[in-house]
Amino acid sequence: MKKFLFSLAALAAAMTATFADEGMWLPSLIGSRIDDMKAKGFELTAEDIYSVNQAALKDAIVLFGRGCSGELVSAEGLLLTNHHCGYGQIQYHSSVEHDYLTNGFWAMNRSEELPNPGLTVSFLQRMEDVTARIEAGESAEAIVEEAKEGGKYAASVESLYYNNKFYLFVYQVYRDIRLVGAPPSSIGKFGGDTDNWMWPRHTGDFSVFRIYADKNNQPADYSADNVPYTPKRHFTISTKGAAEGDFTFVYGFPGTTREYVTSDFVDYTLNHSNPAKIHLRTLRLDIISAAQEADVATRIMYASKHANIANAWKKWQGESLGLARRHTVEKKLAYEARFDAWAKGTEYEGVLDKLHAKYAELLPYAITRDYYNEAIYAIELVGFAGRPKRLTEANYKDYSPAIDKKIAVEMLREFGENVKAEFIPEWYSAKLAECGSVEAFVEWLFANSRLASKDAFMSALAGGYDFSTDPAVEMRAAFDKVARESVGANYTALNSDITALYNIYMRGQMAFEPERAFYPDANLTLRVAYGSVAGYEAADGIYHKPYTTLDGIIEKDNPEIYDYDIPQSLRDIYASKDYGRWGVELNGHYTIPVAFLAKNHTTGGNSGSPILNGRGELLGINFDRTWLSTMSDLDYDPDICRNISVDIRYVLFVIDKIGGAGYLIDEMTLN
């Protein structure tokens, strides 16, 4: 591996510069930010945030499943995350007879807590800079294998700053995670897709789980003999809240950001990728929504799928609006012009020209790849065909062939109209010509594939059917071949070239702006982001306050609309003002706080992250961003980018007064 063309000292200096409320900082290097954090209201030390020698705040945080965060709130393994993070598990346990999505679920003792096969939580044990080891020629695989200690831990080596730095992350993974409580969806998903990514927000987006371990407090598969996990640290809960201007920080696992890309990537996102993906998902959502409205069982069956499709669909819309409003493409072009002028005569001269050229080559493959992922592979039958030998009867629990057929027709039609002929498999073109239309092809496919229904699949499995001859498997193989050889190979090769150029451009940016704070892009590793509670000016003359209350829920309450039909118990409590110890005086009004805004830089993966005050006490659970904030994955704007959290006092209120599970609060440490 070639030597770095900039010193690590220069990198450290760049990381200490301050940009207002922007950044996702590595906990092990948080010492470089402590002075700024303390100036804004932080009262603890860097060692309190991250330590390998003593229990620290990091030990109360988990990677929940494969893409959310969570936090420990008791000495008995009690864990909070978002309702939408636990949605798949809640739906898994739901049926028409036990509709936990609609009615909520509360275990009233440990024996009623529900196991969740396949769900894990991961605690970060340590992170370590292994750049020197990688540079010296040691392989990432060897470093990871050593860190696993014979299977005791999970580990990975992740690149930062486009392969200019490498860090080892070591985790302990717990496998027995049980559902303890979830509010009704009319609280946990209040507002549904309409309110998603919006402000003001009134969603009680939380769910409660418990981690179990063996009798030695070590990870174990589910067993009735397992006991609640005893954490090294759990959060104290603040019942005092935070006022506008107060310091907060978010501690969790942000997924993906690309703050240092060129104008080419932003232009592709804004003008090519997002419009296509939004359109394709709109078609799918329309089909699913119509089926859900017509049948209660289908509503439950497709609840999680609908939510998953809609989440990114709406996010992309807000991202595009934010990028256009922020003029990010033009801003990037202006920056690149300044960089080019500075780079003349240096080792960085010409790197942008090479990047622009590579992106131009990549464009047709990137567009085609989007259509493969969002059209072809969005057909569930095609998904089944990719793993026929691993399918089980359970895979059909939440599947409707009738819905999938309608989606297949729309997706194949869009694919044919927008993808170049050279990227369409010959097998499909021939079958389409033989059938005469997309509709006829889909009818033939679903009529003849043994994967298209549970009964047909189970019969084929019992009869020793050769699935390699199944038309859906043949279709999948034909599309996979083109996706892999004609599209994927070129896409991967060009992206490899682009990454290599970014390695140079990243170092160039650091040399060009030595006083700028260069935090590493998010990659689902543990990070700290900090910023104050703050409202924002949404439009000329419109200022959004940084908090919402129960009064706003009552204003939106509508029994005629599923997502706004709150439990009658909540209406009754509001009418009597029987808020118990959770009621507060807010602007001279007795109410319950529900959600609040802050300037913390967050992204996907931060869902479920704890939002903490300057003393490290839990104020709430991060669950979203405002709509125009979604462009912060590419371009953070401190004037308008806000993360949204459910106020922990609303969480406690719902557990106590709606769920009747106040015994859970007795486990917690309140301040």
Give a nutshell description of this structure:
The protein is of the alpha+beta class. The chain is built from 24 helices and 24 strands.
Number of helices: 24
Could you describe the largest sheet, including whether it forms a barrel?
Answer: 11 strands, antiparallel
- The general outline is globular
Q: Using the CA coordinates, give the radius of gyration.
A: 26 Å
Low-pLDDT parts are 1-19
Q: Work out the helicity level.
A: 40-55%
What's the number of extended β-strand segments?
A: 24
Structural class: alpha+beta
Quaternary organisation of the protein chains: single chain
The N- and C-terminal alpha carbons lie at a distance of: 52 Å
Compute the average pLDDT: 94
Strand percent estimate: 15-25%
Structure description:
- The protein is an alpha+beta fold and 671 residues long.
- Among the domains are: 60-234, no CATH class; 263-512, no CATH class.
- The protein is built from 24 helices and 24 strands.
- The strands form five sheets. Strands 1, 2, 3, 4, 5, 6, 7, 8, 9, 10 and 11 form an eleven-stranded antiparallel beta sheet that branches.
- A hairpin with a 2-residue loop joins β15 and β16 (542-544).
- α10 (263-294) packs antiparallel against α13 and α16 packs across α18 (438-448).
- The chain is globular, with a radius of gyration of 26 Å.
- The termini are far apart.
- Residues 1-19 have low confidence and may be disordered.
